[in-house]
Design brief:
Blueprint (H helix, E strand, L loop, with lengths): L1 E5 L6 H12 L3 E3 H10 L3 H10 L7 H12 L8 E4 L5 H13 L6 E6 L2 H9 L1 E3 L6 E3 L26 H15 L1 H8 L3 E5 L4 H12 L1
The chain binds adenosine-5'-diphosphate and adenosine monophosphate (AMP).
Length: 213
């Protein structure tokens, strides 16, 4: 099963992708997580990506496509994967489609987690991430058991640099201009499915599993 998660930054793609990965036993692949891991490890790729991420801009396609294609060629992707945050541009979607075509394969569903802009600023302002295991919480909607501490690994939660209000505005603009056209792209291919992302996390997941079976 090969799934793409679409939606604005903060719509809940990562939250749902982790749940899908667990239920269906496929890897959760987030290009944002890969970039953040590279930043943490001080790699050249990380330093280059950070320049764009800090401004709320997309990392150039040349860099992003390469890391994604490398990742999906790993053995653990043989039975599928759930992509979170990729593709974010039409050229990225085309590269992925061509790479899959070459091996007689295809994406099964592109799931759009639909959340209006008004809700996004709240979602991202309240997002807290665990620097250890990558778990994501929300101070109001999905709080950890102990304030500021990861339920899973006990580390102190952080606010992502690019979740600060001034960057969020840029990220939303970039989403509408560069990523939203993918909705029509996948609609034309008849694999687009839309779920109401304003519902609670479990209800959104129920809508997704009803689609995936
Ligand atoms: P994305 O991966 O699309 O950027 P996340 O999955 O990180 O978004 O979710 C953004 C924020 O919203 C996080 O703080 C997350 O805990 C919270 N969140 C996710 N799904 C829901 C939901 N259905 N209702 C309320 N808050 C949610
Ligand atoms: P995310 O964790 O998905 O919210 O991504 C965080 C940031 O990483 C984005 O704002 C971009 O700067 C960068 N990024 C992640 N995925 C991509 C992608 N597919 N194309 C370009 N930039 C990306």
């Amino acid at each position: 099963m090969k799934i793409i998660m679409l939606g604005a930054p903060g719509a809940g793609k990562g939250t749902q992708a982790k749940m899908i990965a667990e239920k269906y036993g496929v890897p959760h692949i987030s290009t944002g997580d890969i970039f953040r891991a590279n930043i943490k490890n001080g790699t050249e790729l990380g330093m280059e990506a950070k320049k764009y991420m800090d401004q709320g801009l997309l990392v150039p396609d040349e860099l992003t496509v390469k890391i994604l294609l490398d990742r999906v060629s790993n053995e653990d992707c043989k039975n599928g994967y759930v992509l979170d945050g990729f593709p974010r541009t039409i050229p990225q979607a085309e590269v992925l489609e061509n790479a899959l075509n070459d091996i007689n394969d295809k994406i099964d569903y592109a799931i759009d987690v639909d959340v209006p802009d008004e809700n996004i600023v709240n979602r991202m302002g309240g997002r807290r991430a665990c620097p250890g295991c990558g778990a994501t919480y929300h101070v109001e909607f999905i709080p950890p058991k102990a304030e500021g501490i990861c339920d899973t690994c006990g580390k102190e939660l952080i606010l992502r640099d690019d979740d600060k209000p001034e960057t969020v505005k840029n990220r939303l603009e970039v989403y509408h201009k560069q990523t939203q056209p993918l909705i029509e792209f996948y609609q034309k291919k008849e694999i687009l499915r839309t779920v109401d992302g304003t519902a609670g996390m479990e209800d959104v997941f129920a809508a997704i599993t009803a689609i995936l079976g």
